[in-house]
């Protein structure tokens, strides 16, 4: 009897051990039992499982954008940048004066972009979805590692692929497999939008969507919830930016020039990644906004390499009094008081903040004033300004910081922009502003509100046409340009704004045309602003 019981117990023990051994591979514990760790295990994990383990445990460091871009293209680009006279740079007949000329030439030099047989590039021509995807797949480092198994392709996907041109079909198949596009929503011949292209780039680089609570674009409402996180990921990396007016225009078609600019930024990430330390963030110390109205604050982030940008996160200390999004502060319609608006910049481990005390004041009837030209014009920080005095009942109202609390300037139909009072008692108005009515609102130290309007007409653009004549003077070479039909032998003012921001006033002589100095000139777009008989004109020359 004892032998029988012992035999039964032995058989049960073997069964239990066998069951435990068989269950180990399925329970995902890698053979662990009783809290003890088994070492020297030779068991191999499937590649996909290893990748998941690395992501979950955080062992694998997050890749930088530079590491996500194809290395061979980065090396080619570096060669072009270091040896610009090597003969690799491509010249096109229609990009000489274009804002993206340098980007276009550099991307053509490394073979990413090509021109047309007639020698043109057509920089403002819109890209198709097929063209945009092809460029995206060429620059992404991981794109070449995507393998396609035709046997696993669904019939629905085969039908969609058959409608795509053969030259981009392979890229489209890989992009669909990686989740960059959806074949049933990809239309190769249709124009690619700015939003669609940005999302393709972000997904191809493997960027994850970021927080969308602070959208920096005025037209952020046009961005779909599905796309906005990817678009902001590219924005934070400095790969894309909005327009000067603060909009992104997500539904506009992307042009060849815009794509060249984005590709150049991706390949030039060495420069951005050196911005590892934030030196400062600056904001106006104080500002005021009327109930129910908005003002725009501008933050400037300065880095240790002297570069600057405006990539910050905005917060309000009291959202019931005023909210902030992308620097636009909107006051409550039924409250007054003070709120602190904070702008925070972060780069790696470096973080800096700045705060602005914004006072929400009662909506009051402003005292009407007038803005009168003084006849003075000056240049500063890459811009040309025209001086005005602010007068009420024939008496000048000083705009100096010792006399006013806040100054805002608002173009009809746009948000008010906060101006920082300084020691100037007058208004210096940027002559390159768009045509429209601009309302200047001033709140003085006694909380009196004043208002005046400038009915502004933007400079008329004229073409700078080379006459074919050139010459030499005092050891420097010059090329002659005709600026529209303007006779430059006389004018009220004329200024040259160089690509580096330097502003130079020019004087009239007997020459009716412009002799443009080419020796030692700064490369890029040169802007000329001319005032004749109280009308401003604008011309540009790109070298």
Throw out a few tags for this protein:
25% helix; alpha+beta; 8-stranded mixed beta sheet; 12 helices; 27 strands; 5-stranded mixed beta sheet; Immunoglobulin-like; 543 residues; disordered N terminus
Describe this structure in words.
The N and C termini lie far apart (106 Å). The model is unreliable at 1-60 (pLDDT under 50). This protein has four domains: 66-271, no CATH class; 278-361, Immunoglobulin-like (Sandwich), CATH 2.60.40.1080; 367-377 and 385-455, Immunoglobulin-like (Sandwich); 460-542, Immunoglobulin-like (Sandwich). A hairpin with a 2-residue loop joins β9 (337-347) and β10. α5 (101-109) packs across α11 (256-267). The strands form six sheets. Strands 7-8-3-16-15-18-19-11 form an eight-stranded mixed sheet, with no helix packed on it. The protein has a five-stranded mixed sheet with strand order 20-27-26-23-24, with no helix packed on it. Strands 2-10-9-6 form a four-stranded mixed sheet, with no helix packed on it. With 543 residues, it is of the alpha+beta class. It has helices spanning 2-27, 47-57, 65-68, 71-82, 101-109, 129-139, 155-162, 166-178, 194-204, 225-236, 256-267, 269-273, and strands at residues 278-282, 286-290, 294-296, 300-303, 308-309, 313-316, 322-325, 328-331, 337-347, 350-361, 367-368, 370-380, 383-392, 395-396, 404-411, 416-419, 427-430, 436-444, 449-456, 460-461, 464-473, 476-483, 493-497, 503-505, 514-517, 525-532, 535-542. The protein has twelve helices and 27 strands.
